[in-house]
């Protein structure tokens, strides 16, 4: 196996939370010194390659992939779509999960949706529909996300109790898949009802 490719794969799925050196040490068969050397070499490789828009950022013992500074403006334009622009399906799914499950980590959101949610989270953060609510007391200290006051105003809610109650799954084994379906379906039903009344 290629250590650099393994690192890139793990850094990608870790998203904005990043991944710690301890986690990499647990997940990879390479030695800790080899991992550190590979991380340094990978960062140098990304920085030297003018065809790549990403670089490796280290904060403490955490590592994550971020866009290079020179592309910050174009990335900001992408995320700062007007609020009148419809939310994408991915953003709606992510927002529904956060609304019902908050405070919730990105990993939990990914598990419910079955795909990576980093981009959707960034769009929702920049639109100020969600916000960070702290960090979970777990390995890596992942960020906890919740809805914002602006979310409440934007969707005409006075409290989270205004959201339709979730239908309990019929079987425990189907709970995770069913919860994801219910979250999105019922949240979209609420949005449709709101649009019809406005």
TrEMBL record:
Keywords for this protein: Cell cycle, Cell division, Chromosome partition, Cytoplasm
Record has Cytoplasm as a keyword: yes
InterPro entries according to UniProt: ScpB_csome_segregation, WH-like_DNA-bd_sf, WH_DNA-bd_sf
Record GO biological process: cell division; chromosome separation; DNA replication
Broad class of where this protein is predominantly found: cytoplasm
GO terms for cellular component: cytoplasm
Function of the molecule: Participates in chromosomal partition during cell division. May act via the formation of a condensin-like complex containing Smc and ScpA that pull DNA away from mid-cell into both cell halves.
Family stated for the protein in its record: Belongs to the ScpB family.
Protein name per the record: Segregation and condensation protein B
Taxonomic path: Bacteria, Bacillati, Bacillota, Bacilli, Lactobacillales
